[in-house]
Amino acid sequence: MEKAKHTGGSAVIREQENLYQVMFEQTSTALLVFNEDMTLFLVNRAFVKLSGYSKEELEGKKKWTEFVAEKDLMKTKEYSEQHIIDPDVAPRTDEFQFLDKWGNPKEALVHFIKFPELKKTMAILTDISEQKQAEEDLRTSLQKLQEIIEFLPDATFVIDDQKRVIAWNRALEEMSGVNKEAILGKGDYAYSVPFYGR
Fold it and tell me: What's the pTM value of the predicted model, to 2 decimals?
């Protein structure tokens, strides 16, 4: 009877292990597990796709820091080492430039999970290249818009949805006597003070 119970427990454990393996492998998020020396221990299909390498080229052969662009390498190594020394103090997330097999850069967000008893760390990678590009495009568009507003002959200002002043052009500086540096970023109807007082 005891043996049957023991066998049943082993079957449940195997079933759970198989389930975890399937979840690790099939998730659309790039996952990797690395050892204390940064060598890749496990990678999933999403990481294989992101990196351009095969599993055979990665597991036990590559260090995960090999995928970090030079400009972010020192910071990423420090974060990874901190996770080994004291995971409670080390940053849990970081942004860095990921380089694939052909050197193509991708903007990535990484989240670390440390497994001290196994002496391993899991990294969850999200490709945020499109998001970063959208942010950059928005910044460029805003910059162009501000340049246009700056040189309009009419006194012009712009407020955002929080009622904060985000643009205050030269013509308005001359009309109101208020420099843009003194009013940009201010809310609570600060833009009305030069004209109506408090």
Answer: 0.66
